[in-house]
């Protein structure tokens, strides 16, 4: 009985092994690829990596840096917004600069008021006072002169009637009154002449200097609002409200470097593709007049023909490996820019990598 059970188990184990061997020997049909890998449409085409960017007649994207430093108080746009030229994008705290502008404006207004006061001289009230002083001095002279004449006539009639000392005092009083009248007349003429021309010129220069300082500060105040330099689309905003920005840019928490505060792209119907050609492949490039290119969107079967735009005739070190400007590697590349018209049903974004084949028409 025991031997029969062992024999039965052995037969079942052999059958299970045969069934398992058959099941695992069946080859599964491979799944079709999600997309067709990029193929070379040219007989002697060159493969390069391309980077999609906003189409510009010069440069790449529009990197916006503030001209002043400060804390961001308000962000007026969002990423992917289409903006018009001179539209405000971002505001920086301008409280200190605004107070400086108001102070310099008040100083310029005070200088202008003083300049107008100098030009308006003589003041009628001052001239009336000077004229009254002349009249008073003339009256004093007449009184002193009459007294002297009386004393002199009495002395001439009878020298004993007036002492020499009294006569001398009367004469001195008349001479003093005459000098006082001369001073009063000169003071009247000085008041009537108005402000000295040199004082006016000096005040004019002070006013000019203050108004220029006010205009410079007012122009700097405008820099605390960043406006769109051209029509375009907002690609990236690298600062939040309350963050600090400077002419060097905004601090990036992750890269621990500085980035442009705002990156804009053009609103052109075309999209640019920048390709970097390895220096050992430059001689295999066809002439610009016969150059043709085709782009494949990675992860799709979509191919897009490209139009040649320009070549930047400067072979430079490739810095795309780590995106550090200080990087120096042995690979040197030649930038070539293509473009294509933005298709309505295709989503592409600046910074996206694509596969490009370059050949000859």
Description:
- It is a single chain.
- With 361 residues, the protein is α+β, with helices and mostly antiparallel strands.
- Among the domains are: 46-55 and 268-360, Efflux pump adaptor protein, beta barrel domain (Elongation Factor Tu (Ef-tu), domain 3); 62-93 and 224-265, OB fold (Dihydrolipoamide Acetyltransferase, E2P) (Beta Barrel), CATH 2.40.50; 122-194, Helix Hairpins (Orthogonal Bundle).
- It contains five helices and 17 strands.
- It has helices spanning 2-25, 95-120, 124-157, 164-193, 197-222, and strands at residues 46-54, 62-64, 70-75, 82-83, 88-92, 225-227, 232-237, 244-246, 249-251, 258-259, 262-265, 270-278, 291-296, 303-311, 316-317, 332-341, 353-360.
- A hairpin with a 6-residue loop joins strand 13 (291-296) and strand 14 (303-311).
Shape: rod-shaped
Largest sheet: 6 strands, antiparallel, barrel
State the low-pLDDT regions, or none: none
* Tally of DSSP helical segments: 5
What structural class should be given to the helix and strand makeup? alpha+beta
Span from first to last CA?
A: 87 Å
Strand order in the largest sheet: 1-12-16-14-13-17
CATH architecture of the domain at 46-55 and 268-360: Beta Barrel
Can you identify the CATH class of the domain at 46-55 and 268-360? Mainly Beta
What is the succession of H and E elements?
Answer: HEEEEEHHHHEEEEEEEEEEEE
Nearest-angstrom radius of gyration? 48 Å
What share of residues are in beta strands?
A: 15-25%
Report mean pLDDT, rounded to a whole number. 87
- CATH fold name of the domain at 46-55 and 268-360, please? Elongation Factor Tu (Ef-tu), domain 3
The tally of beta strands, per DSSP, is 17
Instruction: Tell me the name of the CATH homologous superfamily of the domain at 46-55 and 268-360.
Output: Efflux pump adaptor protein, beta barrel domain
């Amino acid at each position: 009985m025991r031997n029969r059970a062992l024999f039965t188990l052995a037969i079942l184990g052999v059958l299970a092994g045969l069934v398992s061997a058959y099941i695992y020997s069946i080859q599964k049909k491979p799944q079709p690829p999600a997309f067709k890998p990029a193929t070379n449409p040219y007989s002697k085409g060159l493969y390069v990596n391309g980077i999609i960017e906003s189409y510009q007649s010069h440069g790449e994207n529009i990197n916006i840096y503030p001209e002043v430093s400060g804390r961001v108080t308000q962000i007026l746009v969002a990423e992917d917004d289409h903006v018009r030229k001179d539209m405000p994008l971002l505001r920086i705290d301008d409280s200190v600069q605004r107070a400086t502008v108001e102070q310099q404006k008040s100083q310029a207004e005070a200088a202008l008021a003083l300049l107008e006061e100098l030009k308006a001289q003589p003041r009628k009230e001052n001239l009336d006072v000077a004229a009254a002083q002349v009249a008073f001095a003339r009256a004093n002279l007449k009184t002193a002169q009459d007294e002297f004449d009386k004393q002199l006539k009495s002395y001439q009639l009878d020298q004993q009637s007036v002492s020499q000392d009294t006569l001398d005092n009367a004469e001195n009083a008349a001479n003093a009154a005459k000098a006082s009248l001369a001073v009063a007349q000169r003071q009247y003429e000085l008041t009537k002449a108005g402000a000295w021309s040199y004082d006016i010129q000096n005040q004019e220069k002070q006013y000019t200097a203050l108004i220029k300082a006010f205009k410079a500060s007012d122009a700097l105040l405008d820099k605390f609002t960043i406006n769109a330099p051209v029509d375009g689309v907002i690609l990236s905003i690298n600062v939040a409200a309350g963050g600090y920005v400077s002419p060097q840019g905004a601090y990036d928490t992750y890269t621990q470097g500085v980035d442009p505060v705002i990156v804009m792209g053009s609103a052109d119907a075309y999209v640019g593709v920048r390709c970097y050609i390895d220096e050992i492949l430059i001689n295999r490039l066809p002439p610009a007049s016969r150059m043709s290119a085709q782009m494949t969107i990675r992860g799709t079967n979509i191919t897009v023909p490209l139009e040649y735009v320009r070549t930047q005739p400067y072979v430079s070190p490739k810095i795309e490996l780590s995106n550090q400007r200080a990087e120096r590697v042995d690979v040197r590349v030649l930038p070539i820019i293509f473009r294509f018209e933005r298709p309505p049903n295709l989503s592409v974004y600046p910074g996206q990598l694509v596969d490009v084949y370059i050949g000859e028409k």
